[in-house]
Write a structure and sequence with these properties.
This protein has about 130 residues and is an alpha+beta fold. About 30% of the residues lie in helices and about 55% in strands. The longest helix is centred in the middle third of the chain and has 17 residues, at about 45-60.
């Protein structure tokens, strides 16, 4: 599958809170760095899945919806792509006050695309989405 089609499936798994698909789409050797209020946190696959599970549960229990905006896309290498996404949640048709900016690196391994690295700026004002 080409990257663009796969990326649409990845974003759909995110916006529909499909944890099983996210588990498939994230590499077991995934590495991430998140900055929130100036504090740095590094984490891997297990912590990521736990975070997705909590986030998806919150969205579903709150009757919320993900608002996901793709800001840019870069080809890094023949089998590596980076996508910049901004994400927030809408509750009762209003955005929550914060959003996260994701720099996601995807790699094709054995014919399948997977998320291998993330750099995340968390807790940004959600109104920033409108600036892009």
């Amino acid at each position: 599958m080409d990257f663009q089609n796969w990326l649409e499936q990845y974003k759909t798994a995110w916006t529909t809170c499909d944890l099983d698909k996210m588990k498939e789409y994230i590499a077991k050797d995934y590495q991430a760095r998140e900055i929130r209020r100036g504090e740095l946190m590094d984490f891997g696959y297990e912590e990521s899945i736990n975070g997705w599970e909590q986030g998806f549960q919150f969205v579903q229990e709150s009757d919320g919806v993900w608002e996901l905006k793709q800001l840019n896309h870069y080809s890094l290498h023949p089998n590596q792509e980076m996508v910049v996404l901004m994400a927030t949640i809408r509750l009762n048709d209003k955005r929550v006050p914060t959003a996260n900016l994701f720099f996601e690196t995807f790699e094709e391994k054995e014919g399948a695309w997977q998320l291998v690295r993330s750099y995340i700026e968390a807790g940004l004002p959600s109104d920033n989405i409108d600036e892009y």
